[in-house]
Specification:
Length: 74
């Protein structure tokens, strides 16, 4: 299994995810469960995609597949 903790992109995405978790905690109730939920889900998905791409042997093919996933997150 590939190591990903050392990757700057992983560390930055993970830090962003933690930051969003702490920020969303202070949102109003309405925004916490609408916008906040989307922000948390997308930030977690980004971290999972980084792990998935780094773990695969054929990174180019996986990046192409992830590219479609990233475009659908908009």
């Amino acid at each position: 299994m590939a190591q990903y903790e050392h990757l700057p992109i992983y560390r930055n995405a993970f830090d962003l995810s933690v930051y969003l978790e702490n920020t969303v905690r202070n949102f109003s109730r309405y925004h916490k469960y609408t916008l906040g939920s989307d922000l948390r889900d997308i930030s977690r998905q980004i971290v999972r995609l980084i792990i998935m791409v780094n773990s695969d042997r054929d990174k180019i093919a996986t990046l192409e597949k992830v590219k479609g996933t990233a475009l659908s997150m908009k």
